[in-house]
Amino acid sequence: MKLTKKTHACVRLERDGRSLVIDPGGFSEQDAALGADAILVTHEHPDHFDEDRLRAGLEANPAAEIWTLRSVAEKISAAFPGRVHTVGHGDTFEAAGFDVQVHGELHAVIHPDIPRITNVGYLVDGSVFHPGDALTVPEQPVDTLMLPVMAPWSKISEVIDYVREIKPQRAYDVHDALLTDLARPIYDSQIGSLGGAEHLRLTPGESAEL
């Protein structure tokens, strides 16, 4: 499987000539969803869900479909009947030849005064896990963790403890558009030395074979 990092929380997975894109949001490239056979969206926040990017992906490929939670599906399903699927915790499905399991229900707490919204994570082919904006722990082992490394709802000790709890073989940074270049070496050093897993970072557009 080929993993390509897009800006912020978006990643593209490719295998056997087919492509799956997760969270092509407003901080990601305008063409982040183009060429996708399947699109997964974790929640409704604009850095993960951007209607224009989703529409561009679906219009460019008439066979492309979206899997997401209800709060996102109801915003776009009318425009693409039969191509937007609503999922929740515990669901399993096949998307563009990838086996996907859904884990989690709620977004991480930003502040007690801000109501929590729904959020789901996706485990792809029993190997790659993208949690969206939550520190969800799947019930089975994860080889490759898409690690939300910096957010208004997190601190680095929580990020490190999340890697320790998941125990992946490797963790790749996502959710990092707000992380300055000055801070990156600090995060790399602390997560890499304390997380207990191989900690890796791809620049937007860079790929790795899993």
Spell out the helices and strands N to C.
Answer: EEEEHEHEEEEEEHEHEE
How many strands in all? 14
Biggest sheet, strands in spatial order? 6-5-4-3-2-1-14
Average pLDDT over all residues: 97
> What portion of residues belong to β-strands?
25-35%
Overall SS class: alpha/beta
How would you describe what is shown here?
The structure is a single chain. The chain has 4 helices and 14 strands. The chain is of the alpha/beta class and 210 residues long. The mean pLDDT is 97. The strands form 2 sheets. It has a 7-stranded mixed beta sheet, covered by helices on one side. A 7-stranded mixed beta sheet has the order 7-8-9-10-11-12-13, covered by helices on one side.
Secondary-structure blueprint:
Elements: E1 2-5, E2 11-15, E3 18-22, E4 38-41, H1 51-60, E5 65-68, H2 70-76, E6 84-86, E7 92-95, E8 98-103, E9 121-124, E10 128-130, E11 144-148, H3 156-166, E12 170-174, H4 184-194, E13 198-200, E14 207-209
Parallel strand pairs: 3-4, 4-5, 5-6, 10-11, 11-12, 12-13
Antiparallel strand pairs: 1-2, 1-14, 2-3, 7-8, 8-9, 9-10
